[in-house]
Structure to design on (155 residues):
């Protein structure tokens, strides 16, 4: 009926000796593991991903919503991710200043979406690289469409 009645590797719960839980919170687990159902398990791997945008737009496309939702779900399940960075990018059309502003709007749109899906807003940073770091070279619509993006990464 009390803790002393149980073996060293047990605890008293509801007047019964049961196995001691491996953990009660993520802090009880070694690095790279999280506490689920009182056991330390491997943390899910969150994959950095991309959300693509239409020309001259900062509105999240329907095909990017599932990408953002998957990232939010993974981030919400992990306590070991200390920060998230969303970087907005543009294609080469437009002035440098305009593209920096548009890239920032794209990054902010993704940051807001992550927040609406439960990701702690204070851990998400939104920045813009404008047209400075293209994913694809060239002046075709194919290259442009790959460069109109927001990249989500974790630390």
């Amino acid at each position: 009926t009390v803790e002393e009645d149980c073996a060293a590797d047990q605890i008293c719960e509801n007047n019964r000796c049961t196995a001691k839980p491996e953990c009660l919170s993520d802090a009880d687990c070694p690095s790279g593991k999280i506490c689920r159902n009182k056991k330390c398990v491997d943390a899910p791997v969150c994959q950095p991903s991309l959300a693509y945008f239409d020309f001259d737009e900062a509105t999240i496309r329907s095909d990017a919503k599932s990408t953002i939702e998957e990232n939010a779900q993974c981030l919400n399940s992990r306590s070991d991710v200390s920060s998230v960075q969303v970087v907005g990018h543009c294609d080469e059309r437009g002035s440098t200043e305009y593209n920096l502003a548009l890239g920032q709007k794209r990054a902010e749109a993704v940051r807001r979406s992550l927040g609406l899906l439960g990701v702690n807003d204070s851990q998400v940073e939104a920045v813009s690289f404008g047209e400075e770091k293209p994913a694809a070279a060239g002046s075709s619509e194919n290259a442009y469409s790959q460069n109109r993006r927001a990249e989500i990464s974790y630390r």
Remarks:
- The first helix runs from residue 62 to 76.
